[in-house]
Every structure is written in C-alpha cells, then in structure tokens.
Write a structure and sequence with these properties.
The complex is a heterodimer of chains A (741) and B (241). By secondary structure, chain A is an alpha+beta fold. Chain A contains 24 helices and 31 strands. Chain B has 241 residues and is mostly helical. In chain B, the strands form 2 sheets. Chain B has a 3-stranded antiparallel beta sheet, with no helix packed on it. In chain B, strands 3-5 form a two-stranded antiparallel sheet. Classes of the chains: A alpha+beta (741), B mainly alpha (241).
C-alpha cells in the first residue's frame, strides 16, 4: 500500500484522517483532564476521550449545515430531533468560532476540544466578506480538494500573520514550525490559481517566494510559470502534489503552540489548509534542530511518516549454493569425478555461509521464485570464486587503480553504459538510438553461424560450442539497431547471454548476445523509460520511466509481473537488492523508495535529497544503500532501520555513477563534474550509532565528516563519468563520453 | 551570443523565457528550435480554431474556438502519463497475483512467439527450377497498380527475354486503399507455374506495406534475375486495408 495519502478526498477518507490528528490531541487531553472544567453545556455532551463520538458529532453538524444551506428546513428539524442535538448547542458551536474557548480559561484543553468540534463550522461567523459558496469548509472540504478557503485577497494577510507568529516563538520551536512555510505557500498559491484569481496569485507569489528555503527554488521556478488553471491540467506532478498529503514531523510541544495560535485567531483558513493538505506526524521528544530538519527534508511530499519505515525488510543475502571447487585443473577433475578419494583435493565453497542456520535478516530461499542454476551458471560461479581469491583487499591505505574508458566521437550522445560482471563486455547506449557492444578483452565478439552453416558443422565434436561461432564476422564491436529513440539504460544479464536496453520510445528491448539480434520488445511504459536492470540471478528485470512507476518483468512474460506505483514524479533509477527480493527506485520527486518484489509494497521511503535522484548502489552485504542526486551529495541509508546514516559532500554536479567495491570497503562516485571520488564506506558505516530513541523517532545526528571519509579525488580531462564498475579483483573501471567543450 | 540589437524580437523573447526559468547554459540552436515550435504550434491552433468557428457558422474566431482547439490538440500530442490513483489501482490489481513459478530447463526463457521479434516477417521465394511446358512461351501477367501501368512484354518465340515489370515499383509501396488486379493471360493457365504468394503476417509488419513482386515466368531458368524475382500479390482480397 502506498504510504502517502492518495486518492481523491472522499467523505470517508476525510473523516478517517481527521480523527487521526484528533486522537493525538485527545490523548493529551486525557492526561490533563484533572483541571478541565468544561463549563459550556455542549461540551459535556462530548467527553474528553471520545474520539469516535466527536467524529459523529462533526459529521452530524456537517450534514445539518448542508441541509440548512439547501433550505431543507423540515429535514433539519427531524434530524436535529432524532440526533438529540439541542438547537442552541449547534448554534453556539457555530457562533463560538475560533475564539470561543477563551471563556473557559482552561488553557489548551477545553479550548482544543471546543475548537475541534467547532472547527467545521468555524467559517460561518467570519467577520469579513466571504463568498457564499465556500464559507462552509466542512462540507466543501469534505467533498472537494479544490474548494476555496476564503477571500483571496486576504491570503497574504493570513500568511504574514503566520510568519510573524513563527518568528516570535522560541528558537527551539521555530525551526520545526518553519517547515510549514513551504507546503502552505504552495497550496495557497495553487488554490488561488485554481480558482482563477490570477492577480492575487501573482502578488502572493512575489511577496513570499523569496522566503522559502533555497532547496525549493527549482520547484518555485516551475510554479511561477503556472498562472492559470489550464496550466495545471497537464501537470500530473502538481496534481499529485495537490491530492497527496505533505508530511511534516513536528514535536508535540511545537504542535501545541501552533494549534493554540491558529485557534486564537478569527481566521481558520490556515488551519483548514493544514488539516486538508498536510499530515502532521507528531512525536514526543525534543524538537529537532534546523540542521536535522534540513537533512531530511527536500522531497516533494515532505518527509516520510514514521510507520511507513517500520515494515520488516529482509536485507540479508541469500545463501550461496554449495559447489565443489576443484583446486586442480579441469583435466584432473574429470578423472576425479568418480569420487576417488586419493587425489581429490576439492574444497567446499568457502564463500558460502559456514553456519547452517538461516540468517534472520535474510529472506527464505523460496520467498520469490528464482531460476535454478544451469551447468553453465555453475561453471561461472567456479570462475567467480577463483577470481575472488585473487581479489585485492582495498582500504584507506590501499586504493584501487582506476581505468577510464573514454568514448570518443560520441558527440555527447552517450546516455548509458554497462559492464558485464566479469568485465569482459562493455555496452553503450546512445542518443542516436543504437546500442553498441564492445569486447574489453582481446577476444573478439562472435555471433552464432547462420542456419545454413550450422548444418555443416560436426555436432559431435568436443568444441561444438566454439564451432557454432562464426569466425568470419568476428569484430571488436557490434552495433544493435532497433530502438527509435535515445537509449537511456542498458544492462547485461549475469550469464552474459542477454542485454537489455530501455529507450525514450517507451520499450525495453532484450537482445541476444549470441546472435546479436533483438529478441523481444517489452511494451508497457508508453513514455520514456529512464533505467532498467537485470536481477542478480537473471530472469527478472526492472524498469522505471516517465510514467512514475517502476515495473518488474520476467523475460518470458510479455506483460509486467509487478507495478511499483507511488512516486510523485518520474522514476529515474532502478536497482535490485543483492538478494533480488527488493527493488530500490530513485525518482525526480527527490525520494528513494524500496519495494518488495513479493507483493509490490513500498517498504521504505527515504527522503533527504534536494534534487532528483539519479544513481543508487546497494552495498554487497545488502545492509546499506547509497544514493546520489543532482545536488551533488551522496546519502547513505541503513535499510533495516530506514535511517540516513551518512552524507558525503564534495561533488559539485549531478552524480550519475555509484558503486561499492566487491567487499564493500570503498564507495566510488562519479559525476558530471568530471571527477571520480573514493569514499571510505567502512568507516562511514562503523560510526553508525542507532539507539532506541533514534530508531523510534527517526532522528539522526549526522557527523559532518565528508572530508575525513574522502580517500581520493581523480579528475578526467573533460569527460563526465557515466558509469563505474569494480572488477572481480577490485580494479575500478570508469566510463564516460568525451565532452570537448 | 549575438548582441541584442541584431537578434530579432521573437528570439529575444525566447532568451528572456529561458532566463526566467533559470536556464543559463544552452546551445544557440535551442532558440531556433523554440521559435520553430512556437510558430508551428500557434499556427496549428489558430487554423483549428478557424475551422471550428466556421463550423459553428460564426464570422469571427473567438476565445471559445481557440480554447476548443487547444483542448483537442492537448489530447492528441501533449499526452501526460495516467493519474496517480489510476496507477495505484492497476498496481494493486497487478500485485495481487503471486509471482509465477519458473519452469526448469526450458532453454531461452522468452515470451510466446507472437510477442517476440524472432520470427521473420517475410519469406523468400525458392528458386524456380521448373520450365514451362509450352515451348518458348513467355508470358507476363498484366499488372495495373493505380496510376502505374505495366508494360506487357510481347511474347516472342524463341528469344527469352526477361523483363522485370516490378522495377517501377521499386520499394514496397504503401497500398492502403489501392486496388490492383493481376491479369494472367489465359495461355499461362496451362503452364504448371504457379504464383507463389508471399506470406505476410500483417501483425508483424504493422503498417500496410506490402511487398510487391513480379513473377517472371521465364523459359530460361538460368536467368540471373531469378533470385531477384519479386511477386505480385493478388490484391483483390486486400482492398479494405
């Protein structure tokens, strides 16, 4: 289930969410009711702890007002009689307005209780001219998300009023309450635009847009171009912003302050907007500092609610299958296959887990169906293990060598690069819609012979697999034609037989690397597909595009198996977790989401980036995720807890490439500023201290240690880095297209 | 960048727009592309609006016509991705079905053939080895394709001459809506030669391109053009494409 509140505002949805906020208040009340002498009679009808009762009360009053407005007086009478509502009760609530609680003198308790009940009828006694159609925010708020909340010319007054209030509170609360500015500003502006008050909207924008945080400037620029209602129509991102709820995390004390202030005033427009469009996730504890808030905010939908990140995630790795690794040559192995013990010196798979017990954090082997290993896969695994014994141990004293593959004459058309796992093949996707495959090793690329020639070969010979290959057309590189738009993502399959490419024409194509022809075109996204990746075990692949969803496919199904919907803007980057049970997606709405492949649920929402997220990398042990975006920062996340554990500052431009070394000790990042930087990820992950407090509230204290973690920075002449890859022996390969300007 | 004095006013407007949206670095061609797009878009809308206003029998084009024109064009060319609640709905439906089990050892795991691009969408004619029984007769089917008329070759005894009528129809031509007939001289009916039709799977081709080939009945089987023979398609069945 998507974590962000979604869907049109229906009567039920509205009523459900209101008590959410209500129940926070009432539980506070129950702690303080000792002093609450509820003087006015209507209040006795609604006892302190009765959240459901208040909900009914509200609905009742809303219905009554609706009937009244439509002059159905008889029905009003009947309903009132049956519901047992006194006439004065309802009227007094109506006339109390927001200032009614003053008579109690009981401070916040009864006040807030009254204001809850009267909130729905608050607009009636407005002492300023209000349009007839929209002075009943209870009904209209409930029925439509676009109702106008008051006189447009007074929006500026409301906003400045709030601004003055927030500037006058204590420092510790000010940072938290300042979070309100941006969503309120945007919602008020969009409401003015939607209701066709163009001039007021422009004036409002001019006056207050400069006050917003610097990291929202891109959004504001887009907003200032929207002045008419028609402009909103095609803009799905903004429409989603309007209907989904912006999440804010505020401590209880700050929230009480805010509520008290807003209900003291006569105008409740801001309170209405808050209730309608914002979701305030209240937590108990110390208010957060400005830097803490800044590190987590920036996304299009605010932060993530706490309960969203509570689902259990199986981040452990799947057990490696046990394969006998012969230490002798393969010739000897053939002799020993009979199991003769005398010369057999086989060694069990030492990279597999020694313990027979299941890692509690790892998913079951059969949680999702995975293809079983073929013989060729087993041989591949043996090669893998042999090479990993020769792997260089990296560390702060032992930095990897970097080999940079520069694409010349690409005319800035290189849009995607991928290496095979054993670094033998390199594929590039280009803006001219071709995909080119190169052989990195001296061995040339060969394709399978044509059918006529295949008839002539000796099928019984030992090297039949070599004989089926056509020597005559062997070449260093092959070009694959088929797409009708720039190719934005390429991915090799782990068994090196297939290549995937995703393009602006909305299709994902599967190419065979044995025949170098296109096998399948997967159509589903009807809009540019920005990224695609094969699963670490093959068979499944994921793609994400402009239509704001990521899709999980299997090579033998022409339709996707899973659709991961929930992002508010394009999905720019999709990566599988090493155990293939989860998919991480980065998006233009500045969040990173983690999805469960089994049931398509979003299990983590990670906010904190201030720009579209363009690169993701899982650590080899599966516990951590690194993400890079256009703001030049790399953020490190603990998947298990869903917390940000590190921030690596240094790059000055978009980071398009992120890769962990084979054992996870070093994180390499490559960006458009023509540099590759190496970071000490071991140290960054060691310094994580998550105590219970941080785990429950999700607060982090990020040490500003980017400088210490930076192990090296390497410039290329003028080639932005598009892709990074660690070979099996921990040599770093980088790729990019030469940019002569 | 050219100095503002020499840049036309429209281009200055474009430069100002880019500046307002915060774009500072762009290739100079971008201005031209924007101007071209604007011109094309505005003229399309205004032309559409004129059509709507004449349809409504109004003497002038007014704002309603323009609004209608914009709305129609938006649905055509500037489509936007589906709305979020729709996506969430179909995602919920799709995600309910469990992941299908994987069959073991089935070779390359690909979708059914009709969803793949692995089958050819053409078939080559095999070499014509058989000779017509009527000695020396060369018969050429008459072909009339719309405006293109074929030149029938005159059958001459004894001298094999090969003509490819189809050369006028060089590349596969889109034949939607065109009828054409193939007249096969009755004398040829006696010959054993049969026209092999090209099997075309329309779904694979997509568009209505049909390969036109001419079948040359040639006495001389050693004619070099045998491998280049192309066939006529009997189009009587296809006119509704």
């Amino acid at each position: 289930m998507a974590a962000v509140q979604d869907g049109p505002m229906e009567l039920d949805a509205e009523k459900e969410t209101k008590p959410e906020i209500l129940s926070d208040g009432t539980s506070n009340l129950s702690g303080n009711t000792a002093s609450g002498t509820l003087s006015s009679s209507p209040l006795t009808a609604a006892p302190a702890g009765g959240a459901p009762k208040m909900e009914n009360q509200q609905t009742l009053i809303a219905v009554l007002q609706f009937l009244k407005r439509n002059k159905l007086t008889d029905s009003v009478e009947i309903l009132r009689r049956e519901a047992g509502l006194g006439e004065d009760q309802e009227d007094s609530q109506a006339t109390d307005g927001s200032g009614g609680g003053k008579g109690d003198g009981d401070g916040g308790d009864a006040h807030s209780l009254l204001s809850r009940v009267s909130i729905t009828s608050a607009a009636a006694p407005q002492n300023m001219p209000v349009k007839r159609a929209d002075d009943q925010p209870d009904v209209s708020v409930v029925l439509s998300a676009y109702s106008q909340q008051g006189d447009p010319s007074l929006y500026q007054v409301y906003y400045s009023g709030l601004k003055n209030f927030i500037e006058s509170v204590l420092d510790c609360h000010r940072a938290e309450l300042s979070q309100l500015f941006y969503p309120l500003f945007v919602h008020m502006y969009l409401e003015l635009v939607y209701n066709n008050h163009e001039n007021e909207a422009k004036a409002f924008f001019e006056k207050f847009s400069g006050d917003q945080e610097c990291y929202y400037q891109d959004d504001l620029r887009i907003l200032c171009g929207l002045t008419k209602r028609e402009h909103l129509k095609g803009n799905e991102v903004l429409l989603d912003f309007r209907t989904s709820r912006f999440v804010l995390r505020i401590s209880r004390d700050s929230y009480q302050l805010l509520k008290r202030h807003l209900q003291e005033r006569h105008n409740n427009q801001i309170w209405n907007i808050i209730q309608e469009h914002l979701y305030i996730d209240i937590f108990d504890g110390m208010p957060r500092s400005k830097s803490q808030i800044d590190s987590m905010s920036g996304s299009l939908a605010g932060e993530a609610k706490r309960e969203v990140n509570k689902a259990k995630v199986f981040y452990g790795l799947l057990k490696e299958p046990e394969i006998e690794v012969p230490l002798d040559d393969e010739d000897d192995e053939a002799e020993n296959e009979e199991g003769k013990p005398k010369k057999k010196k086989t060694k069990k798979d030492s990279l597999g887990s020694k313990s027979k017990k299941q890692d509690p954090n790892a998913p079951q082997q059969n949680r999702i169906p995975l293809p079983e290993l073929k013989d060729s896969d087993k041989l591949d695994k043996i090669m893998y293990m042999k090479e990993s014994t020769k792997r260089i141990r990296l560390g702060p004293e032992n930095l990897p060598s970097i080999c940079f593959y520069t694409f010349l004459n690409a005319y800035q058309g290189l849009t995607a690069v991928d290496f095979t796992d054993d670094s033998s093949l390199l594929a590039g996707g280009f803006a001219d819609s071709t995909v080119r495959v190169w052989s990195v090793t001296p061995k040339k690329l060969r394709k399978v012979k044509s059918a006529a020639d295949l008839n002539n070969i000796d099928k019984e010979s030992d090297d039949v697999l070599e004989r089926i290959m056509d020597e005559k057309t062997a070449s260093e590189s092959k070009i694959l034609y088929g797409h009708s738009g720039p190719v934005y993502g390429v991915s090799f399959s782990p068994d090196r037989n297939y290549l995937l490419s995703s393009s602006e024409d909305g299709t994902v194509r599967l190419w065979s690397l044995l025949t170098f022809t296109c096998l399948v075109g997967y159509k589903g996204h009807n809009y540019p597909v920005w990224d695609t990746q094969f699963s670490p075990f093959g068979y499944y692949f994921v793609s994400g595009g402009h239509d704001r969803v990521a899709r999980l496919w299997a090579t033998d199904h022409y339709q996707p198996l899973r659709i991961f919907a929930g992002h508010l803007a394009d999905v720019t980057c999709t990566r599988f977790h090493p155990n293939s049970n989860y998919v991480a997606t980065g998006s233009t709405d500045r969040t990173v989401r983690l999805w469960d492949v089994l049931n398509g649920n979003c299990v983590r929402i990670l906010t904190g980036h201030k720009g579209p997220v363009h690169s993701l990398a899982f650590s080899p042990n599966g516990k951590f995720l690194a993400s890079g975006s256009t703001d030049g920062r790399v953020l490190l996340w603990d998947i298990g807890h869903g917390l940000m554990i590190g921030e690596l500052k240094g790059h000055t431009d978009t980071i398009y490439a992120l890769k962990f070394s084979r054992d996870g000790e070093i994180l390499a990042s490559g960006s458009m500023d023509n540099t590759v930087r190496l970071w000490d990820s071991m140290k960054a992950f060691d310094e994580v201290e998550t105590d219970d407090f941080t785990a429950t509230t999700g607060h982090i204290h990020l040490p500003d240690n980017s400088q210490e973690l930076l192990l090296g920075m390497y410039h290329s002449k003028s080639t932005p880095v598009t892709h990074l890859h660690f070979t099996r022996r921990n040599l770093l390969l980088a790729a990019g297209g030469y940019n002569s300007q | 960048m050219a100095s503002p004095k020499t840049v036309p006013k429209d281009a200055q407007v474009m430069m100002q727009i880019l500046k307002d949206m915060g774009i500072t670095e762009y290739e100079p061609r971008v201005i031209n592309q924007m101007l071209e797009f604007t011109y094309r878009y505005v003229t399309t809308i205004i032309e559409d609006a004129k059509i709507y206003s004449t349809h409504a029998k109004k003497s002038n084009v007014d704002a309603d016509d323009v609004r209608l024109a914009i709305q129609c064009r938006v649905d055509q060319s500037f489509t936007s991705p589906p709305p979020r609640d729709f996506l969430l709905d179909i995602a919920r439906q799709k995600n309910q079905t469990p992941l299908p089990l994987i069959k073991p050892y089935t070779g390359p795991r690909l979708p059914p053939d009709r969803y793949c691009l692995t089958t050819p969408n053409y078939r080559l004619k095999s070499l014509q080895k058989k000779v017509s029984s009527s000695a020396g007769r060369i018969t050429v089917p008459r072909l009339s394709v719309g405006a293109v008329s074929s030149r029938p070759s005159t059958p001459t005894l004894g001298t094999p001459s090969v003509q490819t009528v189809g050369t006028k129809v060089g590349t596969p031509v889109s034949l939607s809506g065109q009828r054409f007939t193939v007249q096969i001289p009755s004398s040829q009916a006696a010959s054993v030669k049969s026209v092999q039709n090209v099997l075309i799977n329309p779904s694979l081709i997509g568009s209505k391109n049909i390969l036109i080939t001419t079948n040359m009945v040639s006495q001389n089987s050693s004619s070099d053009s045998s491998s280049l023979k192309r066939k006529h398609e009997d189009e009587d069945d296809y006119d509704a494409l």
